[in-house]
Every structure is written in C-alpha cells, then in structure tokens.
Amino acid sequence: MFHEPRFWTAVAFILFFVFFGRKLWSVITLRLDERAEEVRNNLDEASRLRREAEQMLEDATRDRENALTEAQQLIDASEAQALSLKEQAIRESEELVARHEKAAKERIQAAENLALRDIRMKAADIAFAAARDAVAEVLKQDPALAAKLLENGLTGLPKALKQNKAA
Q1: Contact 145, 138 (CB under 8 A)
Q2: 67-70 LR contacts (CB < 8 Å, sep 24+)
Q3: Which long-range contacts (CB under 8 A, 24 or more apart) does 47-56 make?
Q4: For 127-157, what is each residue's pLDDT tens digit?
Q5: Where would I find the H helices in the chain?
Q6: CB–CB of 139/145 below 8 Å?
Q7: Does pTM surpass 0.70?
Q8: Each residue of 81-135: pLDDT tens digit?
Q9: Residues 98, 159: Cα–Cα separation, whole Å
Q10: Residue 55, SS3 per DSSP
C-alpha cells in the first residue's frame, strides 16, 4: 500500500486540499458569489429594461390610440366642413343662376319693349304717311275744301297758341 503510486497520489490530493482547500474554497466561493451577484444584477437590469419596454409599449399604444382618435376627429371635421362648403357652393351657384336668369329676363323685357316701341313708331310713321297721302289726295281733288281748311286753321291759330301758353 505505501509502495503504490495511487496511494501517494490520494495522500497528495488529500494534503493538497487540506492545506490549500480552505483558500481554494474561499476563492471558488468568492468567484461563484461574484458570478451569482453578476447574474442577479443582470436579471435585475433585464427586469428593469423589461418594465421600461412595457411602459414604452403602453405609452406608444396610448399615443397611437390618441393619434387614431385625433385623426378620426380631423377626418370627421374635414368631412363636415366639405359638406358645408358643398352646400354653400350649391346655394351660391343657385343664387348666381337666379341673378343671371333675372338679368336675362330684364334684358329680354327691355328688348321686347324696345321692339314694341320701334314697331309702334314704324306703325305711326306708316299711318301718318298714309293719312298724309290720303289727305293730300282728297285736297288735290277738292281745292275748295283745302282753302276752307287753311282759313279755319289760320283763324284758330291765336286761340290754340294762348291755350298752349296757359298749359
């Protein structure tokens, strides 16, 4: 047994751990404790980052919902304004058409009145010319009547001038 290398290896192994075991054990436990603390710190950091990410996600979701709500409100307001502008444009165009129609009717009425006046003037001119021709024809045929009318006109002239001045 004392001559076997396994025995001396076992004794060396045991003596190594007896002399250096406490020191090694404290170093190993220190390293393991440091590693455990590092893992704990990493887990705490990961938890903190996760909470921040969840908070950011909630904020982003809330902001998105607010933006969607605001966008819908803007769309609704725009549609209402567009409808109002459309109704106003329709009203204004109807008023414009009514004004143009009224102006056209007034121009047509004025043109009709002008045409009637021209027709009356033309008819009066024709009637006057016809009466003049008829009177001239009658007076050519009866010179005594022409002389009598001329004499009556000259005697009645001062009286007609006095009436004209009085009026």
Answers
A1: yes
A2: none
A3: none
A4: 989 988 888 888 788 888 778 877 887 788 7
A5: 5-141, 143-166
A6: yes
A7: no
A8: 999 999 999 999 999 999 999 999 999 999 999 999 999 999 999 998 998 888 8
A9: 57
A10: helix
